[in-house]
Design goal:
By secondary structure, this protein is mainly α.
Length: about 130
């Protein structure tokens, strides 16, 4: 991945850590197959490598991996930058997109290696990023 400042999505994912983020795809196009396999192994869904490239939901009129995400339109409708700024946080839309390592580990029948966690889970572990004190 290329070195860049943290880029948070509307729900707290980290674009800069995600191999699907367009600048990361452009820097390392072979990682699209790795990511397709990693998402399938850890999350149970597969996206064809040639379809993996995402502008990030903070962009204007973005090309997104997940066209059905309920968070982006909700955040925009509420006039806030991200879920953590919303008076209704955490709502069901955020909880639908909430990711924790423990939740993913509990859903697979193998010990997730540290490299897999770093590449395929860490970019999406958003619960701690938006935790309210």
């Amino acid at each position: 991945m290329i070195c860049m400042d943290p880029i948070l999505t509307r729900c707290g994912y980290r674009c800069d850590l995600c191999m699907a983020f367009k600048p990361n795809v452009e820097a390392h196009p072979d990682n699209r197959q790795v990511l397709s396999d990693g998402w399938y192994k850890n999350f149970g869904f597969r996206i064809p490598p040639e379809n993996i490239s995402c502008d990030g939901c903070m962009s204007e009129n973005p090309k997104l991996i997940d066209q059905t995400c309920p968070v982006r339109p909700c955040v925009i409708e509420h006039g806030v930058d991200n879920c953590s700024q919303c008076k209704d946080f955490p709502c069901s839309k955020f909880l639908e997109r909430q990711v924790t390592f423990e939740q993913i580990q509990a859903g697979v029948p193998f010990e997730i290696p540290p490299d897999d966690r770093r590449c395929f889970i860490l970019p999406y572990e958003n619960k701690a990023r938006w935790k309210r004190e």
